[in-house]
Amino acid sequence: MRRSVVAGNWKMHGSSASIAQLLDELKALHVPDVDVIVFPPSTYIALAIERTNGAAIAVGAQNIHFETAGAFTGEVAAEMVADLGATHALVGHSERRELFGETDATVARKFSAVRRARMTPVLCVGETLAEREAGRAEAVVSRQLDAVLQSADAATVAGALIAYEPVWAIGTGRSASPADAQEMHRSIRARIRARFGEAADEVRILYGGSIKPSNAAALFECADVDGGLVGGASLDAKQFIEICRAA
Asked: Among all residues, which ones are annotated catalytic?
């Protein structure tokens, strides 16, 4: 039985005061069968770790560089956030791919860097609306996935998290139907099984894309949906707690 995971990606939102308040409210959350992770902006990772001390809430980074050190002004290495106490890092989020030109090859290097730092990578994959309407959704997600699978081993993949985020459902208020989500999650697991066999049964695959308290339970009931990567709703303690309880 795979443990459910609910993660909150706060993107470029928050201040010291608002994050402290949000975390204080989340610390009251008690869902022993769900792993809870928050991804604050990098400037607030240390604050989040300090504020969640003793609580069952993990803290991760929204982005890392694939090198350990170097002349990369403005970048942060995986080892640096691990040194603060972060345990997870997002790689391949659609906004990084679209707005900052990250390629499949770059994402694969970042995935390896997160593992090198002994953290858990959260690999984000997903198609645009145009790609889905052209009937290419599965091919696009498979390509993004294969870029990482080809340089990983079964244990590495089994220990990672994968987040399917249809780009057309991120921040739009639209969400994939439970049937749409299950179909793609099943495809992702089958792709992993074809390469690594039974290790695919251990991989936890999250759905992301306009998750709200009103649709969370139906999505989480799907056989291959093991939780969610939550955007806007994770900035509201009440909504995020409701989503965690739905898992």
From this structure: 93, 165
